[in-house]
Amino acid sequence: MSQTYATITGWLFEHLIQPPFYALGLMAYAEDAYGFLDAFLLGAFGIGLVWLICRPLEIWRPVEPVLDRRVVRTDILYTLLNRLGILPMLAFVALLSVQPLWQGFLTDQELLPPTLEELVPALRDRPWLAFVLYVVVLDFAEYWRHRAQHAFRWWWSLHAVHHAQRQMTFWSDDRNHLLDDVIAAFWFGAIALLIGVPPAQFPVIVLLLRCAESLSHANVRLDYGRIGERLVVSPRFHRLHHGLLSAGTAGKNYAVLLPVWDWVFGTADFNRASYPATGAPEEPEALATGGWWRQQVVAARRMLGLPTPL
Fold first, then answer.
1. What is the pLDDT of residues 150-190, one digit of tens each?
2. Under 8 Å between Cβ of 180 and 158
3. What is the dihedral of CA 262, 256, 167, 177, to 10 degrees?
4. How far is CA 171 from CA 32, 90, 168, 247, in A?
5. Could you give the CA distance from residue 92 to residue 84 in angstroms, rounded to a whole number?
6. Under a CB-based contact definition with an 8 Å cutoff, are residues 213 and 83 in contact?
7. Which of 227, 236, 260 shows the shortest CA–CA distance to 142?
8. How far is CA 186 from CA 11, 23, 47, 218, in A?
């Protein structure tokens, strides 16, 4: 799969990107352009994969009819900007450039970099087990980032863009303020480098977690049963987090992939069988029904403590 993907990327670069770059004398930036193309194609592949998985489910058993297609189109714009805007990859590459400085500092202090393979040398011979542990650690980090988004007033002002959506679909996953996305990308990238995620595995982990998040936001009446609900976050489990009774600092079900974190830290709600209405009615109407730009501006003004429209 990796070889096929590399072949396709190379062909597209050679035939679509390289000729105009050569004609315009921009070949000094060819390597950067190849990196952007690589990340762009990965994002496009992720969007297509999510659509193939989630759209049939939403048609099969929707929780509710979608009455306002306009707000869903805004969510689609969020997804295109986020996943084709390659923020996580840019953050990872940026942090990768400073990794030697961090490792050099630790070496000067006679300390080993705290990667998982350094802590558990046996993982070097078990790449699949190492991959699973990378996912578990990053999912744990994402749980606490999500808790922080609800705990700090300034951060909730940004995250409320996500919770204001009343017409949840699988497109709603990427409905975030740009600054919130930047923070998330650098948080995720920093943790990944700290634990030693190989650059080749990082895009696969991003793809896996994003598929899981998109499915958990889908407008589908779906749960995984009494046992499965405790193993993997389902659309029912996460919809409770977006319910009107779970918005703000009193939220439940923060986990991205593994509900075990909610269970361990007392924020799980496994018992309710309902699929509640979603949204954050205490937040400005603009965050629910405004366009992309209006939502960005209103959330930023709220974070700064400036007056905002209702």
1. 999 999 999 999 999 999 999 999 999 989 998 998 899 88
2. yes
3. 110
4. 29, 22, 8, 19
5. 15
6. no
7. 260
8. 31, 35, 21, 26
Beta partners for residue 278, in sequence order: 243
**Percent of the chain whose predicted confidence (pLDDT) is above 70:** 86
Task: Name the residue with tokens 């400085």.
Answer: 101
Q: Which amino acid is at 11?
A: W
Task: Return d(Cα 55, Cα 202) in angstroms, integer.
Answer: 26
Structural contact between residues 214 and 54, judged by C-beta atoms closer than 8 angstroms: yes
Q: What share of the chain is helix, strand, coil (3-state, %, to 5)?
A: 70, 0, 30
Task: Give 185-195 pLDDT, tens digit per residue.
Answer: 889 988 988 88
Cβ-count burial 236-248 (b if 16+ within 10 Å, e if not): bbbbbbbbeebbe
Pairwise CA distance, residues 187 & 177, whole Å? 15
The residue written with tokens 């004609």 in the block is 23
Q: What distance in Å separates the CA atoms of residue 42 and residue 93, rounded to the nearest whole number?
A: 15
Domain chopping of the chain, boundaries: 2-303
Q: What pTM does this model have?
A: 0.86
Inform me whether the pLDDT recorded for 89 exceeds 60. Answer: no
Phi, psi of 173 (to 5 degrees): -55, -40
